[in-house]
Amino acid sequence: MTKSNGTVGYIELVLTSIIWGVTYVLMKYSLSFIDTQQIAFSRFLIAAIIFVPILIFGRERYTTREIVKIILLALTGVLLYQLLFIQGENGLTAGNASFIVSFEPIFIAVLGLSLKRDRLAWTVVAGLVISTIGMFILLKPNSLTQPELASAVLVLLAALSWAIFTILGKDLLEKHNPLNVTGYVSVVGLIMLLPFVNSGILSMFSIRNIYLIIALLFIGVFATFLGYWLWFDGLKKVKPVTAGSTLYITPFVTVISASVLISEPISLATVIGGIVILAGLALTGINPSNVARLYHKIIT
Fold first, then answer.
1. What is the longest distance spanned by two Cα atoms in the chain?
2. Which residues contact residue 34 at a Cβ distance below 8 angstroms, ignoring those fewer than 6 apart?
3. For 154-181, what is each residue's pLDDT tens digit?
4. At what angle do helices 94-101 and 81-89 cross, to 10 degrees?
5. Whole-prediction pTM value?
6. What SS3 string covers 235-247?
7. Taking Cα atoms as reference points, which of 189, 176, 153, 184 lies closest to residue 74?
8. 296 vs 287, higher pLDDT
9. Cβ neighbours of 112 (radius 10 Å)
10. HEC profile for 178-230?
11. 2/5 Cα distance (integer angstroms)
12. How far is 258 from 266, CA to CA, in rounded Å?
């Protein structure tokens, strides 16, 4: 892995986190008109329509073990993550849901370390700690009501599901094109979602609300097709824990977008927490060897 590839991968992951920050707000808006299952199904239906031609013309061979892994990726990154997160967001503000799901980097770091996939550099550890402090400033856990707490648990489980998805996907990306892997995961995930939608599919095609249509198209094209592909492509170039750390930017984007699009208020805690999150995010991307060289130059 070259330094330039790592930089490109990091930029891809940050861009994905920004897109997903806006997406959480659009999903919250969509929940006023359609249910959790319909949102999840519609986003992957739109993405699958784009992916199918790519899969037809860009075929790759997968072993039986790799096919099983694709099924597991669809289960964790599509079915479980989508249903758990969207249902949880239904009982929370878009901002709070985004803050809670930002536990993903912590789960990714713990899983990666336990499986000996990652060696945590001190800059990564320090960045995770600082960003976590920023997340708690934003979240204010003590202010959650009982119904919100139940929803928060669902979102937290979604974060765990995404962490498993990220760790599982890393090995597969070493042998296969990220676009191809994303396509198969999306199509298999769409099939998994089908039983949960049932008759709700027909009502989706009778939607006349132009703002809802735009929201669903953004979620399907940018958040799902582009977002999942950029995530896998970036994940191929950096360590899972580094990839996870970029998700800390998402809550900051969400609260700003929620204020503009659905009039959720921005508090002082939001501003301070967001700044702390960005500081941790920046630190996570720093190469510790560069810091050591700079320190050596200063003292000599």
1. 72
2. 42, 200, 203, 204, 207, 212
3. 999 999 999 999 999 988 988 899 999 9
4. 140
5. 0.83
6. HHHCCHHHHHHHH
7. 189
8. 287
9. 23
10. HHHHHHHHHHHHHHHHHHHHCCHHHHHCCCCCHHHHHHHHHHHHHHHHHHHHH
11. 5
12. 9
Contact 108, 160 (CB under 8 A): no
Stretch (H or E) spanning 118: none
pLDDT > 90: what percent of the chain? 46
Distance separating alpha carbons of residues 288 and 188, to the nearest angstrom: 40
Rounded distance between C-alpha atoms, residue 265 and residue 12, angstroms: 29
Q: Which two tokens stand for residue 188?
A: 């298999």
Distance set, CA 2 to CA 34, 158, 171, 284, 286 (Å):
45, 32, 18, 18, 15
Count of domains for the chain = 1
Domain that holds residue 104: 3-299
Q: How far apart are CA 194 and CA 141, in angstroms?
A: 35
Residue type, 150: A
Q: What angle do CA 71, 73, 75 make, to 5 degrees?
A: 70
d(CA 182, CA 179): 5
